[in-house]
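INFO  loader      accepted 1 record
INFO  loader      residues=341
INFO  predictor   begin
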Amino acid sequence: MRNKIGLVLFFNFISIGSVLPGQTIDWEEVMRTLIYPAQVSYRGEETIIFCTPKGENVTTRVKIFFKPGKLRIEYLFPPDMTTTVLIDDGKYMYSYDTVAKKAFQFKTSFLQIENGEQKYKLLKKNYTPVYLRETEIGKQKVHAVQIKPLNPANPPREIAVAVINNTVLEEKLFNLAHDLIYSSFFTEVNFALDFPDSLFILPADVEIIPSQNGAENSSFEDVTAALKHIDFKFRLPAYIPDGYVFDKVMILEADNNKRYVQLQYHDGLNSISLFETLFNISISAQLNLGLNETKLVEGEVVKVFYNIPSSLIYKKLNYMNCFVIGNLAKEELSKMLLSIK
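INFO  predictor   done
INFO  writer      dumping tokens
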């Protein structure tokens, strides 16, 4: 499962590499796997690696049970996460502590895809699929494919999809220097399994704790509507990087009742999040970012933080604290941030 990006020409030829005789690839289906959840049930073990700016890797291993519309993730590593289970029933997502018998309920779902067809059209417009090779992941034959951006400010991405059903079994994200910054891959996977619904339901004795962050109407596709639900006037950037379009506004509330506005932009595969708030914040402390630098961009000094797998640009503009996050050229992110007037 991944969304987690004229393609008619792309569907009829392979830019790099070649497909073995007798094999065909449904390029449209491959690209749709970047937007929509898988269409087949499976169980597998997956390793997820974040490559940090300090050269240290952060590794997580999970066991996944998936059937269309339902998801269960059990943590295998690190040790302090092994009592945590994530359950997504297609409407809500729960973070379940199997020892404390408590589950935090979030008013969202990994499986709910907002504006899926719009994002798919953007994906076709902004990216080209490039065939690399056939290989094996998790004991399954896969096609390795590069998702090549048309905008040079966007980094490339690679995926490996199962030959049998186009399920994504490996994903690699790079920065503009082509350094690997994130990877996920299955060490084993089995398809076409029938799971009981009870696997995706919390036990009866679990205390459910609703999330207190945000109201049901905290996400808006209309800026004017969002302005009516926030006590300060946020501003829109005049510059948006090529290929990206406005997606939505979210009003977020932190534990200390401090409110933030998140403006989200999308290009079909990647997203840019622009945050604005009246409150002073310690970005390095709150987001645990280790490396940063001060840069001069278009005559303005901005603070650049290196997150995993994105970069974060911060600046105080007039009375507003603003920062933008995205896996995009720092110059593009800075230009977007500085265009807020």
